[in-house]
Amino acid sequence: MTVRSSRRSGGARWRAPVKPRPPSSLDLATADDHALGDEATFRRLGFFDLDMSAQSADGVEFEQCRFRGSDLSGGHLDGGTFTDCLFERTNLANLRAEKSSMLRARLSASRMTGLHWINGAVRDVTVSECRLDLSSWRFTDFASVVFEGCNLTQADFQNADLSGVRFTNCDLTAAQFSQATMAGTRFANCNLAGIGGVTSMSGAVIAHQDLIALSYTLAAALDIQIEDVGGE
User: Fold this and answer.
1) pLDDT tens digits for 151-186?
2) pTM of the full predicted structure?
3) How many CB atoms are closer than 10 A to CB 169?
4) Architecture of the domain made up of 132-224
5) Residue 169, phi-psi category: left (phi > 0), alpha (psi -120 to 50), beta (remainder)
6) 229 vs 191, which has greater pLDDT?
7) For domain 36-109, which CATH number applies: 2.30.40.10, 3.40.50.300, 3.40.1190.20, 2.160.20.80?
8) How far is residue 182's CA from residue 218's CA, in Å, rounded to a whole number?
């Protein structure tokens, strides 16, 4: 069942993500016995170095699972849920997840280029040192989420609720924020050059060192001309 947060107005007080709750022990998953299927439920499993690419399923649930070195790229999940899961060096490139949710999870050093997480929910999640260029998060609600040290160039956050997100040391060059909810969204030491939808950033909190690049983008959006004025 997809967990959705309500749209918020005004800056909410920042809350760090709740850590995942790993199981005391894991059983090892196998490609033959644990292929994705509609309404399948996977609990306390370790998906280590498995090729699960290009698989599709509706309503699949993962609870207290750990993914390490596995390949889930190019698949399609509709209404999937990931609860208390860990992802390490996992390939999620071009995975399409619609109306899916992620609750209490951590993703690290994973490839997520072209990931589509559309009209879903992400809550109490930390994404660290991941490649997320060209990813799309349209109409997704975020609550207590951290992106740190991530490549988010040309990521698409249109119509997303980002009021519960903190971006730290991320490359957000040419990312799209049109019609996003951003009151309380925090940016620190990020590259914000060329972002789209800058006028949607009302209420966001931006570190002063990030403001210079953003000011040029904002000026362009408002058709403000900038010129150097100096003596002969």
Assistant:
1) 999 999 999 999 999 999 999 999 999 999 999 999
2) 0.88
3) 14
4) 3 Solenoid (2.160)
5) left
6) 191
7) 2.160.20.80
8) 15
